[in-house]
Amino acid sequence: MIANVPVEEPRGTGRAYRLAIGAVLLVALAAATAVTIHRFSIYIDHYPYLAVDDGLANVSYTLASHGRYGFLSSPVQGYTNLTRHRGFFNYGPWYFFVGAGAIWLFGYSLSILRSLHLAGILVVAVLGGVWCTRRHHAAAGAAFVVALLYCFDRAHWPMVRPDIAVSVFAAFLIVVSSHAIEKPSVWLWAVVGLAAGCAAFSHLIAWAMIPASALIRSDRQPAVWVVDPKSATVSTRNVEMRAFDAASVVVATGLNPGDVVVTAGVQALRQGQKVRLLETKP
């Protein structure tokens, strides 16, 4: 009779194996990061040669040099005529404060401000890698980091834009919320709410959705009837459509907060005609 006797591995073999795999993954991640940074540094200061969004660097420069948050080189918001020389409503301030700090430390440099995108990607990579590793999925974390760096290297268009702040806060939101679920804490959920708010307000592109029945044409352009609350008269206003379907229209520009848009009987109206809102008494 032959008995199967289990052979025990020497103590420490499994740990040494895991350490060796971890070391290989770290070396691979370090190499991928180095290659991405190197390739980024080659074109960051000259490609693209001209990008309109690079003008947003003025916000960080003004904040660093004058302590004033505003867009002095473009003080009036297009389509709405809102002044933004003492504030900037398109985006949240977080990216511009980081940019102002970089200018204060190193002096003004368009390349440094463009590099904030790379810095944000590296932060997201670290958060994602650590999140996976803490759940004993180091290989998945390494794959995530490599895929993220590859996509950044292949598709990134370097400009001074605060979009990267959305990704950083979103990644932070995922990591902290997972900890809050595993170990419930009021403070952790408070940080989750803070991260969600910061992400949501980092890139504000305001759109308005109106019923498709409100849309008309004026001077061969899409338009709507807007009610003047003081005179109770209507006037046409051209709008720019972002998207539409049979029931609704997404308006990108042309409408302001608080505008009253006519949604019924639009084909029977004329310029300056008096109207009465349905919820008001005659």
What would your notes on this structure say?
The protein is α+β, with helices and mostly antiparallel strands and 282 residues long. Among the domains are: 53-109, no CATH class; 208-268, Beta Barrel (conserved putative lor/sdh protein from methanococcus maripaludis s2 fold), CATH 2.40.420. The chain is built from eight helices and seven strands, in the order H-H-H-H-H-H-H-H-E-E-E-E-E-E-E. The protein has helices at 13-43, 57-66, 94-106, 110-114, 116-133, 138-155, 163-182, 186-200, and strands spanning 208-211, 216-218, 221-228, 233-238, 240-244, 248-253, 260-261. It is elongated. The mean pLDDT is 84.
Oligomer: single chain
Strand portion: 5-15%
Helix content range: 40-55%
Category by helix and strand content: alpha+beta
> Judging from the principal axes of the Cα atoms, what is the shape?
elongated
CATH architecture of the domain at 208-268: Beta Barrel
Distance N terminus to C terminus? 105 Å
Mean pLDDT: 84
Order of helices and strands: HHHHHHHHEEEEEEE
* Gyration radius, rounded: 27 Å
Count of beta strands? 7
CATH-assigned fold name of the domain at 208-268: conserved putative lor/sdh protein from methanococcus maripaludis s2 fold
Uncertain parts: none
CATH class of the domain at 208-268: Mainly Beta
Largest sheet: 4 strands, antiparallel
Total DSSP helices: 8
